[in-house]
Design a protein that fits this description.
heterodimer; A: 280 residues; alpha/beta; Dihydrodipicolinate Reductase, domain 2; 60s Ribosomal Protein L30, Chain: A; four-stranded mixed beta sheet; 39% helix; B: 187 residues; fumarase; five-stranded mixed barrel; 6 helices; 7 strands; 26% strand; globular; binds iron/sulfur cluster
Chain lengths: 280, 187
């Protein structure tokens, strides 16, 4: 067994929260720059230029890219030979969120109950998902997920007879309904298959994939390209003000499914596609 | 693209009437920062017939929940939040003389109709441009409900704050127009 101290995890999570909120990932910035160079709508091109300028300013001034510093979505890939010492894993993660959001001057957006609606005052708890994987490493991925785009996400269990055409219709319709509320250009995470819960999880996991890296499954990779083309024909464009770049990428993740079902989930990510990871 | 129109707050009826969907504007002057929780409280006060902690006549509300101010800046990151969540409340505030709203995203048909009736306007500012937009905010002061934290009502003085008219007071809707211009018709 390889030992990792809970305090090491707390420190790592705190740093990832701050860096994710301030420093736009390089793959997102590169994709935005490419979009800016080829956007045909003058207003759309101006919006893309402002998005890039905002990212530069945030980095230079150590300001959050967006004031909605999100629900802290944390994915833990725990090697089965890892032993966490000196504390509880989830408590360590939440302590890191608490520390990162306070030190980084990030916004507290989490309420302790959906109906009572009292702010927890430190952005905890995080939305934590854990996967046990082979090896003796711990990978921590942090994604501060804003409400504007998360709230426009959808899930539907289609009938198998609706097939690929039905999947495409549902994804494009979801993106169009999200529209300007979700701060396009978007990254669209699509989950295909699994159970109700797993399907949504696949869609979220798709958002952690690097932009421009296709799915290893050839059918998913083709679907990604075709969906991106279709989504970009809607005319929504940057900020929903009209243009070619409604989305920067569509990432599809799939899983086997039941003979009766064709589940599809669409997790919408805004252009502030913030995520950071570390391997301990 | 045409030069942006310079606007001063509070907004006059003439200034609002001259605006058309798609106009780019630069807003200068005081605005009221308020979002979900603050709107709910204002509407509760109206329902009870009690006075409001802010004057709404001619004012512009900016839907924003900023991050805390770092040393040396009046505010942290401060971009717009989704406007539609405020629609049910905004209908009542428009009856109290509210002239403008700054947010992002589509409004409901009832709200758009109300803009026509009360000669008011809805602007979108850059969603996700919180760092950039904070540079246009000169000063910030909490006016009410400090216990709401980021959701408190604040008075912000903005200078050349960039926005675009989405819904004017003549029924225009730029989100619809923009998309129609760039949509690729399906075969
Ligand atoms: S949708 Fe994203 S960019 Fe837009 S306000 Fe929310 S977090 Fe910020």
């Amino acid at each position: 067994m390889r030992e990792i101290a809970a305090s090491t995890i707390t420190a790592a999570v705190a740093r990832l929260c701050i860096e994710a909120c301030i420093d736009l990932p390089e793959d997102v910035e590169t994709t935005l720059r490419r979009a800016q160079a080829s956007e045909e709508s003058p207003l759309g091109a101006e919006v893309l230029e402002q998005i890039l300028e905002n990212a530069r300013l945030a980095r230079a001034q150590r300001l959050p890219i967006c004031q909605d510093t999100g629900f802290t979505s944390v994915q833990l890939l725990v090697g089965q030979e890892v032993l966490i010492t000196g504390g509880d894993l989830y408590a360590a993660v939440n302590a890191g969120v608490r520390q990162g959001y306070s030190e980084g001057l990030l916004r507290y957006s989490i309420l302790e109950h959906p109906l009572r609606r009292r702010n927890t005052g430190d952005n905890t708890p995080a939305a934590i998902h854990t996967e046990i994987v082979p090896g003796d490493r711990l990978t921590i991925r942090v994604m501060p997920k804003g409400g504007g785009c998360e709230n426009m996400s959808t899930l539907r269990i289609l009938k198998p007879s609706e097939g690929e055409a039905g999947v495409k219709r549902f994804v494009v319709e979801s993106v169009f309904n999200a529209g300007p509320n979700a701060c396009p250009p978007l990254v669209v995470g699509v989950g295909l298959g699994g159970t109700f819960d797993l399907c949504a999880h696949l869609a979220k996991r798709a958002l952690f994939r690097r932009l421009g890296e296709p799915s290893p499954d050839p059918d998913n990779a083709r679907l990604e390209q075709e969906l991106l083309a279709q989504v970009n024909q809607t005319g929504l464009g940057p900020a929903g003000l009209g243009g070619r770049f409604t989305a920067l990428a569509v990432n599809v993740e799939s899983y086997p499914c039941h003979i009766t079902a064709l589940p599809v989930a669409v997790n919408i990510q805004c252009h502030a596609a913030r995520h950071k990871e570390v391997v301990l | 693209m045409a030069e942006p129109i310079r606007l001063r707050t509070p907004l006059t009826e003439e200034a609002v009437t001259a605006l058309k969907a798609g106009d780019r504007v630069l807003i200068s002057g005081p605005v009221i920062a308020a979002r979900d929780a603050a709107h709910q409280r204002l509407v509760e006060l109206i329902a009870r017939g009690e006075p409001l902690p802010v004057e709404l006549q001619g004012q512009v509300i900016y839907y924003v929940g900023p991050t805390p101010a770092p040393a040396g800046r009046p505010i942290g990151s401060a971009g717009p939040t989704t406007a539609m969540r405020m629609d049910a409340y905004s209908l009542l505030l428009l009856e109290r003389g509210l002239k403008g709203m700054i947010g992002k995203g589509r409004r409901t048909p009832a709200l758009i109709e109300k803009l026509r009736e009360h000669r008011a306007v809805y602007f979108a500012a850059g969603g996700g441009l919180g760092a950039l937009l904070s540079e246009r905010i000169r000063s910030v002061e909490v006016l009410a409900y400090p216990e709401l934290g980021t959701e408190a009502i604040r008075r912000m003085v903005v200078e050349e704050f960039p926005a675009i008219v989405i819904n004017d007071c003549h029924g225009g809707d730029y989100y619809t127009e923009g998309v129609e211009t760039w949509r690729v018709p399906s075969e």
